[in-house]
Write a structure and sequence with these properties.
It comes from Alkalicoccobacillus plakortidis. It is built from 4 helices and no strands. By secondary structure, the protein is mainly alpha-helical. Helix 1 runs parallel beside helix 4.
């Protein structure tokens, strides 16, 4: 399996941060939803730390599911 470059990882993290902010989810809320430490999420987002691939996948899964729920709800139930 090919290793992800630091540049690609940084781009992925940038997209995760954009998605989190677009959804209006705070780091604290993301930590609660993923079971990850809020400090770890902050460090990941700021590029101060790296995590195990499972942690990144948990964040991505959580944000993606939130987007799906938001987009699939009838317009009168959104909000």
């Amino acid at each position: 399996m090919k290793k992800m470059s630091d540049e690609n990882l940084d781009q992925m993290v940038e997209k995760m941060v954009e998605m989190r902010k677009m959804l209006g989810i705070s780091r604290v809320e993301l930590a609660k939803r993923t079971g990850l430490n809020q400090t770890l999420i902050r460090k990941l987002e700021r590029g101060m730390s790296r995590a195990h691939v499972d942690d990144y996948m948990m964040i991505i899964d959580t944000l993606t599911m939130e987007m799906l729920v938001r987009d699939l709800l009838p317009k009168d139930r959104k909000g």
